[in-house]
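Archive record:
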Amino acid sequence: MCGITAFFAYRSTAAAPRREELEAITARMIPRGPDAGGTWISPDGRVGLGSRRLAIIDLSPEGTQPMWDSAGELAIVFNGEIYNYAELRASLERGGARFHSHTDTEVLLELYRRDGERMLGLLRGMFAFALWDTRSRRMFVARDPYGIKPLYLADDGGVIRIASEVKALLAGGVVSSAIDPAGAAGFFLNGSVPEPFTIRKDVRAIEAGTSFFIEEERGRVDARRYYSIAEVFARAADKHLVDAGVFVRERIDESVRHHLVSDVPVGIFLSAGIDSSALAQIAAKHTKLHSFTLSFQEHSEAPLAERFSNELGMAHTTRLVSPKEFLDDLPRIFERMDQPTIDGVNTWFISKAVHEAGVKVALSGVGGDELFGGYPSFKNIPRIVHYPRIAHLAARARRHPKAGQIPTHAGTYGRAYFLQRGLFFPDELPHILGEEAAREGIEQLALFDRVDAVLDPDPLTAFGRVATLEAALYMRNQLLRDADWASMAHSVEVRTPLVDAWLLRQLAPVLLGGNGKSVLGSTLPPYLRDRPKTGFFVPMKEWLDLRPDGTTTRMRSWARHVWEAFA
């Protein structure tokens, strides 16, 4: 796991970035990789690579990046883990490839030498990388299918700069910190900034499941989307299977085993929820784990989590978080928060506990609700879409705080999804951002067009549509991004066995039957399986005394509080 950066002065008329800029960007990401670091600049000064390393696989100095292949022709900076790297390495060795390390990073180099961009279809894992090919003088850039690992880009028309963090790009002192109206509007409408926008005008997210080359004089070329969640569900609709049972558990067991590949001990975030508990139960069959749970004076799931952890024979830590600790940490939380978000504080404190225990890697149950339909949105959104044809919903709608908006947003999945997940409405933004910024932001964001584009191709079923929207929007833009910055701030790698492109392809036909969640929890004890669903949250709203007034909920008040740290 790493923080990476790269630049390419692709136009001959552009001034090459200075070494000091590369080093400043890399240094900003030291918490992401405290174990080692390095930079490299080409002899002509037009290409640069930088990395900070959190050593997880092959702890020796051979894993330090930037890394070159054995022929000295390919160089890479890579953030993530390739869980099937051992199988890929064996295949490459049978073809004559030679390795100088035992890292998954070097496997990427040799895989690119053999397969070029087609390599992406062979990778099982989370990744973001930039690879420099001295033979063709091209840079190849790619990000994993779900967008578990972030990657950002600034292109001034002559130089492309890439990094794992928006704030790292700004730390180089060249990229502007000007607020992007579309990013600001996106934050207030959604609670997080939707890709490809960021909160900074000159920085864009490299979108999940995409890759491209950077070529001399031309810049970015051959951009392509190599993975689509919507397409997976569309194909699954043609082979709908109802019998989940053993098949689901076997596939999740396989995913967990892949996510346990590590040369350091692995922990797990353990709430009393079905997702994390099921993962703990499966993982405990294969290795010794250390489980971690947060506890608060206001509420706590710790007793149930402790009981279950003891039953599984795991080492366990319950970390009590007080209001004072939260307030003391708040300045650093905002300093490490890469983009404004209404979430992530929970992962901050659980990752802090993991770091305090000397553990570098932790499994998380994030993705279970998106995969198995655990959110209310799986029922609510289809109802909103068909609102005009459902008379009884009108009576229920009158009691809902968003009732007045339902007729406006009925009819399409994109609008219904926004109604379900939205924080503020567009007509409220002028009061927050000002008339001009709100108008410009809403226009550039084109919110509903972008939400609808997520459903192309059409996943064909109601379940597939909602699952695609939740995974490609809420999970990608908020849960995964927050898990990344909040954990890496404590030098902890979070792994998500339920967010796995290979797993989705295998389970999608079964998931359409709608009973995956019950199958996932079927082997858990009743005191976990039969309890009401609760969220993994920190009572920060109470701690900050964010009382709602007549027009503002507490979560909206927290959003305004976060905004002050970025505006």
